[in-house]
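Moderator note: this is an archived Q&A kept for reference. The question asked for a predicted structure of one protein chain; the sequence and the answer are reproduced below.
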Amino acid sequence: MTEPAPLPRVVDESLVAVSVEILVDAFYADPLWGWAFPDDAARRAQHRAVWTMAVEGAIRYPWVRLADGDTATAVWIPPGGTEMTEEDADRFEELVAELLGRDAPRALDAFGALDAHHPHDEPHFYLSLLGTASAHRGHGHGLALLADCLREIDALGMPAYLESSNPANVALYARHGFAPHSAIAIPHGGPEITTMWRPRSSSA
């Protein structure tokens, strides 16, 4: 009998650094987050600081997940939750300004545009970040992690929402029940972002 695949781990304080390093690797050349942090040499350190705050803010809930073998990670915000506390959100803006200087508006306005388009009319799970380490890319680890998380979300009878910062991923998310919801024109000449919505499962 084939052994079942190990379930994703819930990320706690001891696993924050592991999750963050996957995100740093995954988003280095991302069309949005590469553009928002334009210094190639400094980007990894900048992303590490930013994603650390994002993961640390999200582990208040048991919805930051790490795939077996540390191949991929997902940062979910549950219905009614926030990505950060108000205090941490203020610190986050200060951090980005400190990291980027005159380039800070590119990143801050990108985050602001995503937030402004976020739907609030129906409680849902929000996939803030999903990344696969580059050494493991192309083997389905990220999508397998996504599918595991969506099974839990379906069992709770909840819809889900995400922003696809890479056009290549839109079709992949569509295979898992997401459909385009809106398009976001990022200020300062940034790339267009596709938001996607997945309705609650009818079988829940």
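Archived answer notes: The mean pLDDT is 93.
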